[in-house]
What does this fold into?
Amino acid sequence: MKRNVLFLQLIAVCLIAFQSCYVVYPWFCEEEYIPEICLTRSSVYGDDPSSSWDDPIIGFQAGIGLPVWSFSDQLSIRSGGLLSFQGGGWTEGNLEGRVNLWYANIPVELRYQLPGGFFAQAGLQPGLLLSAKDKYEGITENFMDYMNKFDLSVPVKIGYKFKNNIGVNLRMVPGLTDITSDKDEKDRNFVVGLGLTYGIKIKKKQKE
It folds into this structure.
């Protein structure tokens, strides 16, 4: 419950920071919305390799990002919302299955943009678990009772932004927190992906 409240508080802080950027310091922010889709390869790794869901599965991420604060033309803070389908496959004896996870993430990242188009960014990504399903032998079970609802990870990206506002990036997102409620073992998310973005610039309304 406390982690859910923390997640909602972080959403509120991001919204307030973004709004204040235009109201108090309008010259600091670039008016640009950045829709993004990403093809991912994810797994779950733990302290005990024999019980980890370390068989990778193919997933995706989709969302929208925006600049929250610009220190200069090169350095800025970005945030947004990202829906992520991920998880991992597992093997136990002759039994095989996979756990499918849906997360709502709010990445907050520091971005450095080089003049030539290349960029790098990294930060923290809190996430809220929306759904967890364990699938094996044609059976699907709700896995939410065995999972922690809050996840914290570290997104790291490198990419290139073209002059037509299309961008591509490679990302690695290792998890920091235990995603299961089992106190004897610690399991963490791990996601890598190839992303595609498109910057949509919004013109400011001129004051009369």
Observations:
- The radius of gyration is 19 Å.
- The chain has one domain: 2-201.
- The first strand starts at residue 32 and ends at 46.
- The CA atoms of residues 33 and 208 lie 25 Å apart.
